Fold this protein.
Amino acid sequence: MLIHNGLRASLRRTAMRGLATQARSTLKVALLPADGIGREVIPAARAALEALGSDLPKLEFVDLLAGFELFTRTGTALPEETINALREQDCALFGAVSSPSKRVAGYSSPIVALRKELDLYANIRPVLSVSKDPTQKPYVDLVVVRENTECLYVKQEVSEMGEHGRVAKATRLITERASTRIGKMACEIALQRPRKHVTIIHKSNVLSVTDGLFRETVRRVPSLPEVNGKYDSIQIGEQIVDSAVYRLFREPQIFDVMVAPNLYGDILSDAAAALVGSLGLVPSVNAGDTFVMGEPVHGSAPDIAGKSIANPLASIRSAALMLRHLGYGKQAGRIESAVDEVIRDGTVLTPDLGGNSKTEEVTAEVLKRI
């Protein structure tokens, strides 16, 4: 996956305002492999960072525990010790979590909790077509900017008996504050891209109060007094979420930056990944104003865990995006260029991309090119 130069520039300028200019003698990186193939791809991301050598400050890694498998052993998916240790780091890389589809008493997703604990309010997921021919015009070139702390992911659910049987209820939270700052994030990213277009994804024709607030708030962002006309060049559009999914598959080229509440953004970014060949290519960062955590978009993939065929490229790219948020654009570019070359070459790829190489072989090929 080739990351658009405009996006690379925007990620360098956005979100980590308090971190991007800090000089460091060391860079403290927390590693949370968590579940499944997370334990196979996070070492690849670490190796990519280490391959940069003296081009980065001295790297200090700390391995931290989280995940469903940890929960099954200890009864805790996200230990307090992990949260406290993260607050002492500069950044983090998270692998994947095996959250079960059915309710497990006492369990809650650690990645959702981490986003809230560290106020990582934006999940930024760039998606771009893969091509062995670098001159070919990309068919898909978009960024999903997902609000990371609210919507149904506040996980306020209750189950009770009603007149006609059991009733389950969930609280959906949308606030003006969260919608404003995710709208600003989307505008910042759009500002650095050629098309400068933001599409608000919502369902306010049905959810007129919650999605209505999200839609109206993001629409107002360019006219806010504090932005002082900074976003005047940005075009704001909107799409009902079900229509957006349809058009994403039929005509993805119409989208540039898509900004969405938590649940819609999660679904849309995974759907977009299908258009570029594999979830194993798509990186993301969870960004706040004081911390950043890289996270490959793919899940824990229990069906291939331990087989050494997991694609490490999304994890490696997530490490590069993390570096950009910290202000290390040149170093991130070295990683991104190496991954681009591996994809273009096409001879060392994992099975999800039609190859027959092992995780370690793809990682080694990237490291060689770094």
User: Anything to note?
Assistant: Confidence is low (pLDDT under 50) at residues 1-18. Residues 141-275 form a domain with the Isopropylmalate Dehydrogenase fold (CATH 3.40.718.10). The chain has two domains: 1-121+282-370, 141-275.
